[in-house]
Amino acid sequence: KKKHRRRPSKKKRRWKPYSKLSWEEKQQFDERQSLRASRLRAEMFAKGQPVAPYNTTQFLMEDHDQEEPDLKTGLYPRRAAAKDEDGGSDGMGGDGSEFLQRDFSETYERYHVESLQNMSKQELVKEYLELEKCLSRMEEENNRLRMESKKAGGEAADPARVQALEREVDRLRAENLRLLRERELPRQEK
């Protein structure tokens, strides 16, 4: 009986990582792979199974529509807006950031409306009361800042902060009105 030797056969070629192949070897390897993939796709098609294209980078780039806008320009809308206010131009268009901001606002609004619709009457009342407290706090802070600005001749209070607080107060008032309407809807339906 011959003893089995655990050596690889000489016919078997050694495997080499793709990164260590020479340029010619890489071209041959890629060609073999594309032929193999096309043969497999033909077999799958013959069997009646769904066939996907060979996913090479070149195929993906050809499939990529160059006419689409680059939506990555506005990933950081606050930073881009701050640069625009400073007068700095980094070459990015404002359209992409406006689109993303609008899209985010719409999505957030839809989510918020759904969450309010899923709340019970008690939860809605609780949310309304919390918003009322927040609104009164903002109004008090706004009044305090106005009084400080009047005392100091308008130099102590930061006008941008006052405007931001006024916008927040307006937003909270609108939220309160919306919650009041939503609270009244179930009563009117009954």
Automatic annotation (TrEMBL):
Where do the record's region annotations for Disordered lie?
A: 64-99
* A GO cellular component entry from the record: cytoplasm
Where is this chain primarily localised?
nucleus
At the top level, the lineage of the source is Eukaryota
Q: Which residues form a coiled coil?
A: 121-182
**Subcellular location, record wording:** Nucleus
Give the GO biological process terms.
negative regulation of transcription by RNA polymerase II
**Which Gene Ontology MF annotations are present?**
7SK snRNA binding; cyclin-dependent protein serine/threonine kinase inhibitor activity
Q: Which UniProt keywords apply?
A: Coiled coil, Nucleus, Repressor, Transcription, Transcription regulation
**Family, as annotated:** Belongs to the HEXIM family.
Protein name, as recorded = HEXI1 protein
Origin species, per record, is Oriolus oriolus
Q: What is the lineage of its organism?
A: Eukaryota, Metazoa, Chordata, Craniata, Vertebrata
